[in-house]
Design brief:
This protein is an all-alpha fold. Helix 1 packs across helix 2. It is elongated, with a radius of gyration of 17 Å.
């Protein structure tokens, strides 16, 4: 759980930093959000498959660790 929390906290801080830089440069909030999310819109199908596969492996590893800890606690 700590890994997920740290990962989400880092992602949130970096997104906020990126958005604030865009806003300071004179972009609207909607344009800043579009710039922050545009790399995911131009990804090809193979890149999206790899991204989702890696995310799937990440969450499966976390689920495996949680299940393993529950079995050890019993």
């Amino acid at each position: 759980m700590k890994i997920i929390g740290i990962t989400l906290l880092m992602m949130g801080c970096l997104m906020a930093f990126s958005l604030s830089l865009d806003i300071l440069q004179g972009f609207d909030v909607s344009d800043a959000l579009y710039n922050a999310l545009s790399p995911f819109r131009v990804m090809e199908v193979a890149e999206l498959v790899v991204l989702f596969f890696l995310l799937f492996l990440f969450f499966m590893k976390i689920a495996y660790d949680v299940i393993k800890k529950r079995k050890e606690a019993k």
